Amino acid sequence: LVSVGNICRSPIAEAVFRKLVSDEKLEHKWRTDSAAVSDWNVGRFPDSRALSCLRNHGIETAHKARQITKEDFQTFDHILCMDESNLRDLNRKSNQVKDCKAKIELLGTYDPQKQLIIEDPYYGNEKDFETVYEQCLRCCKAFLEKY
């Protein structure tokens, strides 16, 4: 799960998906991680508002931001991102990777409410983080049901 800085949307999506996988007892089937297209926040914990939002839903995460690697494109079956800018960056990066096996697409593609883009809540407020959580929950549930 990929976003620009890996401190808001993608760690929320990662934590939500990991909890869904755990609740369904499918840990043996899934390897879940998140990353950034940029290197701005490498090594940082998620935004405090993201952590607070997740805690409000009974979800903890120990994730630290990292940048996507060539190996990610060769290892993961799916790379899901948050917006068109992420999608463009990932497609460009994947074209430079030999043996890219990952299917790259917007996480919002799976939203039953058809909200394709998961907007960055960084400059918003707690309500914006809650919106991201709700979108990620809907999308991750639908993705997990499909696969």
Automatic annotation (TrEMBL):
Enzyme class: hydrolase
Subcellular location: Cytoplasm
Cross-referenced InterPro entries: LMW_PTPase (IPR050438), Ptyr_pPase (IPR023485), Ptyr_pPase_sf (IPR036196), Tyr_Pase_low_mol_wt_mml (IPR002115), Tyr_phospatase_low_mol_wt (IPR017867)
Gene: Acp1
Active site: 9, 120
Start and end residues of each Phosphotyrosine protein phosphatase I domain: 2-146
Annotated organism of origin: Rhabdornis inornatus
Similarity remark: Belongs to the low molecular weight phosphotyrosine protein phosphatase family.
UniProt cross-references to Pfam families, sorted A to Z: LMWPc
Designated name of the protein: Low molecular weight phosphotyrosine protein phosphatase
Catalyzed reaction equations: O-phospho-L-tyrosyl-[protein] + H2O = L-tyrosyl-[protein] + phosphate; a phosphate monoester + H2O = an alcohol + phosphate
Role played: Acts on tyrosine phosphorylated proteins, low-MW aryl phosphates and natural and synthetic acyl phosphates.
GO molecular function, one term: non-membrane spanning protein tyrosine phosphatase activity
Annotated GO CC locations: cytoplasm
PANTHER family reported in the protein's UniProt record: LOW MOLECULAR WEIGHT PHOSPHOTYROSINE PROTEIN PHOSPHATASE, LOW MOLECULAR WEIGHT PROTEIN TYROSINE PHOSPHATASE
EC annotation from Swiss-Prot or TrEMBL: 3.1.3.2, 3.1.3.48
Keywords: Cytoplasm, Hydrolase, Protein phosphatase
